[in-house]
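Let's practice the habit of predicting before peeking. Look at the sequence and jot down your guess about where helices and strands might fall. Then scroll down.
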Amino acid sequence: MTLRLSSCFVVLLAACGASGGGAGPTLSPASPAGEFVLETLGGAPFAARATLVFGPGDAVSGQGPCNRWSARKAGALPGFRIGPVIATRMACDDLAAEAAFFAALAAATRAEVTGDRLVLSGAEGAELVFRAGGAAPQP
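Done guessing? Here is the structure:
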């Protein structure tokens, strides 16, 4: 009985520590949550800032290089679809990068979690590699 209770306590304690108090992203392949920052698109570093946030239910949103955006996620991870993307319409110097980001999001059909990275990919789309918003960039 003592072994069982102490094992449960260790599991509960580990779960509380891993969640970070609910403030940071969750890197679960089944239901990532929190903010993810785009690092690479199609294998190339993404120079502008773009984010992805999995919200409650099927809501997804974020910030493109120029505009805030939102969409709905259809399907359960790891297989899913995002779209259509609805965005504000502000102009900036990074509109081409934003268009590439939105096109890659719309083409993504699979999510994979590796370490502190969330990788979205599709059969015909460019791979998007995000890092958890609170994680330090790795070289």
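How did you do? The two ends are 47 Å apart (CA to CA).
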